[in-house]
Design brief:
The structure holds two protein chains of two kinds.
Chain A (H helix, E strand, L loop, with lengths): L1 H11 L4 E5 L2 E4 H17 L7 E5 L4 H12 L3 E4 L6 H11 L3 E5 L3 H10 L5 E5 L12 E3 L1 H5 L15 E7 L7 E6 H14 L8 E3 L7 H12 L3 E3 L8 H11 L3 E4 L1 H10 L12 E5 L5 H10 L4 E6 L8 E5 L13 E2 L4 E5 L11 E7 L6 E2 L3 H7 E3 L9 E11 L5 E6 L3 E4 L2 E4 H9 L4 E11 L3 E10 L5 H9 L10 E4 L13 H11 L7
Parallel strand pairs in A: 1-11, 3-4, 3-5, 5-6, 6-7, 10-11, 12-13, 13-14, 26-27
Antiparallel strand pairs in A: 1-2, 8-9, 9-19, 14-15, 15-16, 17-18, 18-21, 20-21, 21-22, 23-24, 25-26
Helix pairs in contact in A: 1-2, 1-8, 2-3, 4-5, 7-8, 9-10, 10-11
Chain B lengths: L2 H11 L22 H15 L16 H10 L17
Helix pairs in contact in B: 1-3
Classes of the chains: A alpha/beta, B mainly alpha.
Chain lengths: 528, 93
Amino acid sequence: MIGHLLEASAQRTPDAVALVDRGRQLTYGELDRRANRLARLLIELGVRRNDRVAMYLDKSLESVLAIYGILKAGAAYVPLDPQAPPSRLGYIARDAGARVALTGAEKQPAWEALCAAAPELRSLVVLGDAEAAPPPPGARTFTTADVDAFDDRAPRPGTIDADLAYILYTSGSTGVPKGVMLTHRNCLAFVEWAAEEFRVSAADTLSSHAPLHFDLSTFDLYAAALAGAPVVLVPAGVSVFPSAVRSFIETAGITVWYSVPSILTMLVLRGGLEQGDLPALRTILFAGEVFPTKHLRKLMELLPHVRFANLYGPTETNVCTWWEVEPLADDSAEIPIGRPIDNVDAFAVTDDGRLAQAGEVGELYVRGPTVMQGYLGDPEKTASRLVRDPFGEVVSQPVYRTGDLVQETADGVYRFLGRRDEQIKSRGYRIELGDVEAAIYGHPAVAECAVVAVPDELITNRLEAYVVLREEVSKRELLAACAERVPAYMVPGELRFAESLPRTSTGKVDRRALLAEASAATPEPARS
Amino acid sequence: MSTTDQLRNFIVSELGWRGGELPDDYPLIENHVIDSLGLFQIVGFLETEYGVTIDDGDLTPDKFATLNAIAQLVENSKPAAHTADQDAPQPAS
């Protein structure tokens, strides 16, 4: 179980630093004991195996404590994006069936809206030392004092590794987020491989840049716990400033960094990095979007002592393939998504249902212990993506259809070619265009809309919306309405009104035409 | 229109800030008004709009803390040289 990683390190090296958050830190012993107390409170509140407990906190020492408290109670944590609008989070809390949420005083202004949207959510455990804040109507709050009243020995909820560990919500194509159900085994199958492949040990210092509702965080937190190494949370303000990122990595003595490429690109372009800087850093892992070769190559030249690896995989499978990047000859080299990780089977299926041969294009399917259990409460959607292995003769196991089109080279290396649907990446975030469209459609003045993704060198894609109105409304009002439904990174950067949307011969919106128009309308970036 | 007014307009229209009022001394980083991409967009705007060069060393939390701070940064920044090589190494800071 994931909690056992923490317990084992707490037993081996109780005084080793586990977690650093700005000026505060916790040792493995302290983190384990505090998580145990929190777990006992949750169990007292009725939390049982496979229950979902929401987490709504700014990323902090308290949020990591919350995660371990929930895991040790035997439940699954549902991390809510601290920056998303409360209405979307309320939907998620309700969909997840969360009756208890772990939160912080800084989130108090949003509690009422959250509980109003999720009527079963009635208990808020407020972590941190802030003054007790009044609960929303119908709900009760618990504080750190309540947690401290409990015993600090590990409870034994009887969880096995097939039980749920966390639910990660991703953008849904029809406008409602989908909860990906992941077990302890799903998580550990990835973490154990990664810790071994990248030789994570107690002598390392890991960063935690990714938000806790992204699966990149599972490496940061759990590879560190497995090794008994410290993990240092990157303060929110720091990641905005490339030179602050560089200083942070240097000062904290980070040895292994894992993040989306965009922050690394900004580090290269504006971080003031010089040849041979960051001597303690030995490994950089990146995932979530394509890293433009030009910038990756520059970064590798500046940091020749660092090992670089591209990790690929949707939330539904965590990392399923990977590729170690060798020094690049020129800017035109393509970075592949590579080969399956240990104990994972990946294969491509052509449009006509055959196993793709080398050189053929097909949809990537994944089989193995990292594959999700399904989408919470959505058997139909689950059945469309988690299918019986089409080539399983003796045993027919669930395999996940990624929707990614790939091509395998003669030596078994996969290249990513694109999506077969309306899902795109922007800044490493996964976005269903339909999700953004649904948010715009939410405004009564909108008759029709389409959102396109315009390729962008820095952030992979920029969102631009085309809207046909049924009544007068300003762009500003439409975008504000959108921002109330979806996180900021999903709000279109550009919105244009149109008399009508172009259509294909079959009557569907001609997205290609809209994309061509949007791409033509965009000015060149000021700096490249 | 003052510099802070122009900045405010840019942040609302280009960065898509919908979180309400943006007074000149409102903490921009703490309140997630500017994220890492927003920073790059603002820098591009400052360099184009005011014809200055923003040094890498000036991309720090205190210089972008508020609209006032950014306006001050513009005032303190050197005008862009016409033949500046965009890829020239910046001085270490």
